[in-house]
Design brief:
about 230 residues; alpha+beta; BirA Bifunctional Protein, domain 2; 4-stranded antiparallel beta sheet; 9 helices; 4 strands; about 50% helix
Length: about 230
């Protein structure tokens, strides 16, 4: 089934040109009908589908969907609303403990983006991930070269690279240079019309399954280290 109509895309195109409270309040019924309610239904169905795949997958739409309101307190950009809808599909919901597990979705008139991995690890998390990759380099390499991961995410791990590493990690990085990374995330972007297609749910579930093995590795690394 199709969850979103063309007005989902049109709403965000219009919001980009009218990102102020007066316009949003005047168009709030449109937002509710074209964005909020369809997104809640889509995420609810995705949660149900993922629970069938993984019986430990328990979360709610409230724990999964991000608000459209921006936090402008520490930003030079004071526009009050995000120019996209966003949600996390993780058994941990939006909690920090979800790092490495599940998907982050952004949907707008500019397209669909599906992200997974670890984007901003803290110092201890980064140390644990690097040590786990160093200790299990062959397993890590197999995960990023897995056919499903390559077909969905291009086999590419993104993240800024450090210029230096501790000696023991620098030696391991000869075998696996991704140890230099400061982040470990991967993504795929789609054209806007993908959001309108009846196979959207199946597509997202397929990407969740492709991301999960590496996500489990990163999650375990964060929690346990090497």
């Amino acid at each position: 089934m199709s969850y979103f109509t063309r007005d989902f895309l049109n709403f965000f195109a219009d919001l980009r040109l009218n990102n102020d409270r007066e316009w949003f309040q005047a168009n709030k019924p449109r937002y509710e009908k074209a964005v909020k309610l369809p997104l809640e239904q889509f995420i609810a169905h995705a949660i149900d589908r993922l629970h069938l795949i993984d019986a430990t997958f328990h979360t709610t739409t409230k724990e999964s969907i991000f608000r459209i309101y921006r936090d402008t307190r520490f930003s030079n950009d004071k526009t009050p609303y995000k120019s996209h809808a966003s949600a996390v599909l993780s058994k941990y919901g939006r909690k920090e403990s979800s790092a490495g597990v599940g998907l982050y979705l952004e949907l707008s008139d500019e397209g669909l983006s599906i992200y997974s991995g670890v984007y901003q690890p803290d110092t201890k998390q980064l140390k644990n991930i690097r040590e786990a990759i160093a200790a299990h380099a062959e397993i890590f390499t197999e995960l990023i070269q897995a056919p499903d991961f390559v077909s969905k995410f291009g086999g590419t791990i993104h993240g800024e690279r450090a210029k230096r590493l501790p000696k023991e990690l620098a030696e391991a990085a000869i075998q696996q240079p991704l140890i230099y990374n400061k982040a470990f995330y991967y993504f795929h972007t789609f054209e806007p019309d993908t959001i309108l297609q009846p196979n959207l749910l199946e597509l997202v579930v397929e990407y969740y399954q492709a991301a999960q093995p590496l996500g489990d590795f990163l999650k375990k690394a964060i929690e346990e280290g090497a």
